[in-house]
Amino acid sequence: MFSSSAETYSSYWNESLWSNTIVLGSSLVSDVAAASFIPHSAPTPKLREMLKYSSDFYGDLCRRSPEAGVVLKKGREFVDPPRAKVLPWYSDCVFDVSPCVPASDALASSTSDPLTVLPSDKQAGWRFTTFLIEPRFLIPWLRLQLEHFGVTFEKRKVTSLSDLSSFDIVVNCTGLGARTLANDVSVRPVSGQVLLLRFSGLNEWVRDTSTPGSIGYVYPQRNTVVVGGTKVGEVRNDVDILSEELKTKCSQLMPSVAASPSVGINGGYRPLRSTFRLEIDESSLHQSPKVVHNYGHGGEGFCFSPGCAREVVRLVDSLLGRQCGVDYEVQALKRVSKIPRSKL
Ligand SMILES: Cc1cc2nc3c(=O)[nH]c(=O)nc-3n(C[C@H](O)[C@H](O)[C@H](O)COP(=O)(O)OP(=O)(O)OC[C@H]3O[C@@H](n4cnc5c(N)ncnc54)[C@H](O)[C@@H]3O)c2cc1C
Predict the structure, then answer these.
(1) Which atom of ligand 1 lies at the shortest distance from residue 298's CA?
(2) Integer angstrom CA distances of residue 183 from 159, 161, 274, 282, 316
């Protein structure tokens, strides 16, 4: 089966039922993501369910396996005033959400949390606690879990899904690779670049989407702080100038950014589709392999991947004619705790 950051989870949950091979290509956009648990898609009932499941999954991971690189941190998101009239749709998937208020209102209500007070140049926003995910810890951690359970990894380029006919079922999580492998040109690359700064003791995140067409964010990580982002569709090769611009933009959001030395720049292409494709490929039902597609997660792959992986498990079960009655998640987390920490 193919793998992406997301789909390693699904084997992880259900490895005893599947054939346990993951085919990797040469690069993952997942390695370079920022990555915060703040979705931006318009909600649907299915997305809500997936996000809630993902939130529960990351919550368990934080508690049980801090070495996996997922932490809960408080911060605030600035948005345009019309959006802030209601709390964000994902309020039940993050924690302690409250609206930010202008300093004058905060004085009047004698609020004790400085994060709920808007800076003078911002008009609206929310304060909440959410997950920050560090792919460079999470992805190797997941791989180690899978190897521990006997999953093997193969690195090779696949030119057609029919090359994988020795497998009964293939889960196609190839991101942008689906343009050719699933012949789906509606998946398109959207570039993103981030600047890494030396960790400065920063303990809060901030994200600003209040200006249309622009995004700014500062997320503290274990040893670094990641700041972004770049304009949609823009790929910048003038790395020094880009670094300075990102630093200037983000120090307006978080002043301590200005004094933090840069340690690197990361970039990649998000596999964007109008909605991600998560379904059985009906045209594959009478051939080998049968295919379950799971690609096109754009800038939200980390937000939704545990929920998507659970859905993949359901679809594979249905192809195998199994009832999805097992509590995979609980079983998996029990097994995780068997791995000695020294190996992680
Ligand atoms: C700067 C930046 C910031 C981001 N911030 C966030 C964030 O805050 N929150 C969030 O949720 N998401 C964020 N994202 C988006 C997130 O990184 C993606 O949604 C996610 O990583 C997509 O994962 P994927 O597994 O689908 O793709 P990938 O990670 O690219 O994995 C696809 C895999 O398929 C393999 N493959 C493709 N074609 C073939 C082939 N022909 N043969 C063999 N293998 C193949 C690839 O090599 C790779 O292993 C960000 C992305 C960027 C670039």
Answers:
(1) 19
(2) 11, 11, 16, 15, 22
